[in-house]
Design a protein that fits this description.
Blueprint: H1 2-14, H2 20-37, H3 42-48, H4 50-61
Helix pairs in contact: 1-2
Length: about 60
């Protein structure tokens, strides 16, 4: 799970052609994959990864 999330963070941070819609889809797909692997870990995902991913989106696309 950590390796996959590191890859998602890397793409969000480094792909200059990524649109906000594609970024949101990438995050949604990553969450789905995590929950497929670990169905009982949604709270952990929401506490650990969601804020990190949201912060990257906010900084990258100037969202608030």
């Amino acid at each position: 799970m950590q390796m996959m999330m590191d890859m998602v963070v890397s793409v969000l941070s480094q792909d200059e052609e990524l649109t906000v819609e594609e970024a949101a889809e990438l995050i949604a797909n990553a969450k789905r994959a995590v929950l497929n692997m670990f169905p009982d870990k949604e709270l952990a995902y929401d506490l650990l990864y969601r804020p990190r991913l949201q912060r990257i989106l906010n900084e990258r696309f100037h969202l608030q």
